[in-house]
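Troubleshooting log. The previous structure file for this entry was overwritten by mistake, so regenerating from the original sequence record. Sequence copied from the archived sheet and checked twice against the printout by T.R.
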Amino acid sequence: MDWGRNNYREFPWRKPAVSPYESIVAEMLLRRTRAETVKKVYLHFTHQYPDFISLSKASVSDLKELLNPIGFSNVRSNAFKEIATTVTRDHNGALPADETYISNLPHCGRYTANAVLCFSFGQKRAIIDAPIHRMMCRHLGFLPVTEIHKADELWDFMARLVPESYPREFNYALLDYCAIVCTPRVCKCSNSIVLNEIDRNTIFDE
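Regenerated output below.
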């Protein structure tokens, strides 16, 4: 985790007490969009709509205007409206720590559910997006898959790797490593960082 601590990227959705709502907002905004680009919109969004209930009352047109700077405003605005309406209806705006429920929310899924459970509820959860999948193929010998959310072998492997005591920090470090070092065009160092972390967690021990 030394690399993660030394290269930690600070974002407003990474605060220690990030709420499940804030995690959902961040995950939806970060899709196909760089974190640095999302930062300003995230702050405006969560200030104007601080919870699921307030978001459920927003008009789609207002959401589109707010989301225009980062693109995909039609898709994102409708997704936010559907998610907020569902959580408000089902749980009065209080998102439960329930993997099945979160993954079945409109426009969510396995990654979003695990991210929320890890970052907001502190659970030991694996997260695998396209950059992490790329790292696993480059460093760990996995073959590329077209549907990451269905690749149980990858998820089971990473679930064993995530440490019990600091799952958030580990996953943040992994995300940062894939953004800074293991980039789409080139990996800027050897695989020693990843393999050393695997060795420390004795992932291959039975």
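The longest helix spans residues 73-91. Archived copy saved in two places this time.
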